[in-house]
Design goal:
homodimer, Jelly Rolls, 1 helix, five-stranded antiparallel β-sheet, mainly beta, 43% strand
């Protein structure tokens, strides 16, 4: 599956902590967009879509959230609960976000601007495209 | 003083909130670096420096912090405590950060990579350069 966890260095001392993310350095793409999700109500599920062409890095800069990831071969659950842990997501990964803690702030860096046309929001359509995607990837490899 | 407050649209509903920042769109520069400050201990002051050539956008994505800003003509205090409020900082502004709430996460977007040579950490040196800077700016205007 096109996901990866990245550990970022914390620049900290007794006074506090700082994490620095730089495009094409410890973030493996150009940062065009930064968004953050907060004040998520209990029992809310977010996401439930995939992107055709989008690289993203997600960090729970506060609190925790669970993310289900699925490339069409079955789901994997990842918990983000550490400001120094990033989750790198590539193309064609279905994601669903839930179990947000009350205080969760999920920050996401993306290599493209917001583009509604890049979303696949129907899971069956996602499976069809994902199967084709894997065949092409396999053929190339 | 080369500072500005920006209000960002919150894309929200009963389930939660999202704010989206895009370079050269609602953020008036190219985003090269994103850093975040957290777990700051009580009574800690951070900052106490200026940058010669750096544009930054600061957002308290969680909690609150007070920022003292000074371009050499006297200080201004700004409180950041709203995830939809950004503070835009230009060149040659001395800043000091304090009164971090326990839960504060201060996210900063910057148009340059980290560069130790761009910091002015001595206030008297800052005043000397700031006076020269204002004279040049005045001459150009």
């Amino acid at each position: 599956m096109d996901i990866e966890r990245i550990h970022f260095q914390q620049h900290g001392d007794h006074g506090g902590q700082l994490v620095s993310l730089e495009e094409e350095r410890n973030v493996p793409f150009e940062i065009r967009r930064v968004y953050y999700i907060f004040a998520t109500q209990p029992k809310v599920h977010r996401g439930r879509h995939a992107h055709r062409h989008l690289r993203q890095l997600a960090v729970a800069v506060r609190g925790s959230v669970t993310i289900l990831l699925d490339d069409g071969t079955g789901p994997v659950e990842v918990v983000l609960n550490d400001p120094s842990q990033g989750l790198l997501l590539g193309d064609m990964v279905w994601r669903e976000l839930y179990d947000f803690s009350d205080d969760c702030v999920l920050m996401v860096l993306a290599d493209q601007f917001y583009d509604p046309a890049d979303y696949i929001t129907d899971y069956d359509e996602f499976l069809r495209e994902a199967n084709g995607y894997r065949r092409v990837e396999g053929a190339v490899a």
